[in-house]
Every structure is written in structure tokens, then in C-alpha cells.
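C-alpha cells for chain A. Residues wanted.
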């Protein structure tokens, strides 16, 4: 075991311990405040709904604790346990050329990793979500989604992985730069294509019917300068009772999407206010900033991998005891597996940036719609989605992409 092995184990232990501690804090904090609705919400949310949200949050965090321990054991199995090397050895027996060998090895790694996560996903979907009245998916829909995702992985991910490995084999020290350019272009194409080519594989999208709500939304779009390819309703109720709204796509593919569950639960002014918030993300260039940040992070990550891939201790420190003939795909696999361990403690920084954007989008919504209606809509959504009103502050700092309910509502009611 070399120094890098020890460093990896140290970060793994620290990140797992932190995740378990934070989940435990969340459970204790939510349970402590379960018996009373916060004063700011007492006239809007009844005790039964508040307690349901508390129990739902506790159940999900208990599952997260088990999943964290399980994930750490699986990661150790892939790395120091020799699982990745064994998988590569099996593919080596096929006699495939280096590029096909690497591509299929990586695809099989992703498929096996997804299969290993299925028990937790099943329990989450048909256990917790079912128990609290949110799951609407049938086993048939669940299996269909799995198969569609697997097909997309092979059809889309396969050629992409092959191209990356080709760069690694033929471009020497510059492969990571070419890969970054390819990855950036792929992501832009994916964002553009998602609304019309990918999302319809999983959900049905129908144009919002003519009427007062459509007129109200069109007026909001016009006064905020937003042009889209249409306003659509998604059949989110096929899988879940949770409600949401978003806009998606780039350029001419942009479209506004409402979950059918959201339209059923909110009044027209509340829908307008929620949409104004979502449009705020667009008008304030949050989407562009997030894409730019992802490009910057992927650039740094690939540059780091370009250096790590040339270091023997990187492989031996993560369980690769005998060097494969073509090691590029092994380096890529190891990097994908272990980087989350080292990045965990940067989570608060990413979450802070996301919460900052949410506050800015709320301010935008206040200027173009009614803050009162947005507050009313948010309270309904918090209640109907069983989002706890009393999260642990430290847990929220690490995990919450949106401000906690009391903080967000107070900001809308009393802007600084």
C-alpha cells in the first residue's frame, strides 16, 4: 500500500464519516422540531403535513446512511479489492482490439454500477415514495425506464467513450484538451437536443391548452423578453406526485415545461409566479454560468487526469497491481470512481452558488410577478412535496441547492 492508497483511504473515511454525521444531525434536528409547525408557517401548514414531511425526511436520510456505507464498500471493491482489474482481465480474454476492449469495459462498469444501485432505488421508489403517497410508477414503467437508460448509455455513451479512448491513444500529451473540446460540444448538443429527442422517450409533452392561464403565461414571457418553442405540460404524474416547473433547451429548442401535478395544485397567479422564478434563471444568465462552470471544472479535471494517467503510483495506489497492455481506459475508470471522494468537501461551495442563484431568481420573480403569490406557491409545494421546514443548518449548507424554507420565505417577504 503506497502513500496514495493511504491518502485515498483517509479521504474515503473522512467523507463517509462526514456524510453519516450530517445525516444523523438532520434526523435529530428534524425529529426535535417534529411536534410543532414553525411560527412563520403555522397559519398555512397544519401539524399533520409538517409531521409527514419530518417522517419522510427522516426515512430518506436513514436510507442515505445505509447507501453511503454500501457505496464505500463497493468503491473499495472496485479499487483496492481488485474488482476493476478483474473486470478488465475478463474483457481482455475476448481478444478485442484496445479501443473496443476499453470501450466495452467502461460500458460494463457503468452498467454493473447501476445494477448494484438498483436495490436502493427500488426501496426508495416502491418503499419510501410509495409509503408517503408520492410514487405513481408501476413496475412496468420502472423496468422500461431502466432499459431506455441502458440503450441510451450504449448508443450515445459508447461512441463518445470510443472517441475519448482514441484521443488518449493517438494524441499523446494533448488528448485531454481534445477530449475537453469533444465533451463540451457533446454537452451543448445534449442540452439542445434533450427537449425534443431525449425527454419524449420518458414522458409525454403536450402543448398547454388555450385559456386564461396560457394568456397569463404568454404575457409574462413577453414582458420578460423570453422566446421559446412553446409551453408544454409533462405527464409527471405517471411516475410521481411531486410537482415542478422548468425551462429547458438552447436556442430555438427552448421550451417551458410544467408538471401536470403542479398545474393541478396551484392557482393561476401562483403558476405565473413560479414561472417568473424559473425565467429569472434564464434572464440572469444562471444557466450560461452553470454551463461555463461545468466546462471549467471538466477542463481542470481532464488536465489533472492527463497528469495522473502518467503516474504509476496512481494505478498501484488504487488496486491495479499488474499493468494492462493498454492502460488509458483503466485510468479513466479510476478517475471517475475516486474523484467524488476527494471533491466531497467542496460540496458547500457548489451548494452556496446554487442557493445564491435561487435568491436572485426570487428577486427577479418579485419584480415581474407577485411575491405574495410566489410565497403561497412555495408553501404549497413544500407541503405537497413533504419538504421539511426545519432542516439542520449544517446539513443544508452541504446538500441544499435551494435555501431552506424559512430563509427563502423571509427573503421574499422582507427583501434586504
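Reply:
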Amino acid at each position: 500500500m503506497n502513500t496514495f492508497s493511504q491518502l485515498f483511504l483517509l479521504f474515503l473515511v473522512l467523507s463517509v464519516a462526514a456524510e453519516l454525521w450530517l445525516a444523523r444531525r438532520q434526523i435529530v434536528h428534524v425529529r426535535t422540531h417534529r411536534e410543532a409547525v414553525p411560527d412563520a408557517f403555522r397559519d398555512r401548514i397544519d401539524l399533520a403535513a409538517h409531521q409527514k414531511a419530518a417522517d419522510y425526511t427522516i426515512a430518506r436520510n436513514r436510507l442515505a446512511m445505509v447507501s453511503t456505507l454500501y457505496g464505500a464498500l463497493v468503491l473499495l471493491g472496485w479499487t483496492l479489492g481488485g474488482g476493476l482489474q478483474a473486470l478488465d482481465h475478463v474483457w481482455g480474454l475476448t481478444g478485442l482490439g484496445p479501443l473496443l476492449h476499453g470501450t466495452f469495459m467502461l460500458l460494463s462498469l457503468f452498467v454493473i454500477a447501476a445494477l448494484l444501485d438498483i436495490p436502493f432505488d427500488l426501496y426508495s421508489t416502491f418503499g419510501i415514495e410509495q409509503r408517503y403517497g408520492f410514487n405513481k410508477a408501476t413496475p412496468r414503467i420502472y423496468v422500461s425506464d431502466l432499459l431506455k437508460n441502458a440503450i441510451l448509455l450504449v448508443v450515445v455513451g459508447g461512441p463518445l467513450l470510443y472517441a475519448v479512448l482514441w484521443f488518449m491513444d493517438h494524441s499523446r500529451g494533448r488528448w485531454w484538451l481534445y477530449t475537453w473540446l469533444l465533451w463540451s460540444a457533446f454537452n451543448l448538443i445534449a442540452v439542445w437536443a434533450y427537449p425534443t429527442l431525449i425527454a419524449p422517450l420518458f414522458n409525454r409533452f403536450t402543448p398547454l391548452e388555450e385559456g386564461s392561464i396560457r394568456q397569463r403565461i404568454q404575457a409574462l414571457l413577453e414582458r420578460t423578453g423570453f422566446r421559446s418553442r412553446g409551453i408544454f405540460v409533462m405527464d409527471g404524474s405517471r411516475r410521481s406526485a411531486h410537482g415542478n416547473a422548468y425551462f429547458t433547451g438552447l436556442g430555438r429548442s427552448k421550451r417551458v415545461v410544467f408538471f401536470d401535478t403542479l398545474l393541478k395544485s396551484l392557482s393561476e397567479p401562483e403558476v405565473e409566479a413560479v414561472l417568473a422564478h424559473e425565467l429569472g434563471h434564464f434572464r440572469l444568465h444562471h444557466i450560461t454560468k452553470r454551463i461555463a462552470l461545468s466546462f471549467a471544472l471538466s477542463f481542470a479535471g481532464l488536465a489533472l487526469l492527463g497528469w495522473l494517467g502518467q503516474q504509476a503510483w496512481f494505478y498501484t495506489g488504487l488496486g491495479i497491481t499488474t499493468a494492462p497492455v493498454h492502460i488509458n481506459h483503466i485510468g479513466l475508470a479510476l478517475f471517475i470512481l475516486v474523484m467524488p471522494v476527494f471533491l466531497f468537501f467542496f460540496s458547500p461551495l457548489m451548494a452556496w452558488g446554487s442557493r445564491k442563484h435561487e435568491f436572485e431568481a426570487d428577486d427577479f420573480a418579485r419584480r415581474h410577478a407577485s411575491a405574495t403569490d410566489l410565497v403561497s406557491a412555495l408553501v404549497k409545494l413544500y407541503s405537497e412535496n413533504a419538504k421539511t421546514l426545519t432542516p439542520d443548518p449544517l446539513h443544508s449548507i452541504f446538500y441544499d441547492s435551494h435555501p431552506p424554507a424559512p430563509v427563502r420565505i423571509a427573503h421574499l417577504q422582507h427583501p434586504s
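The chain has a mean pLDDT of 90. The longest helix spans residues 98-131.
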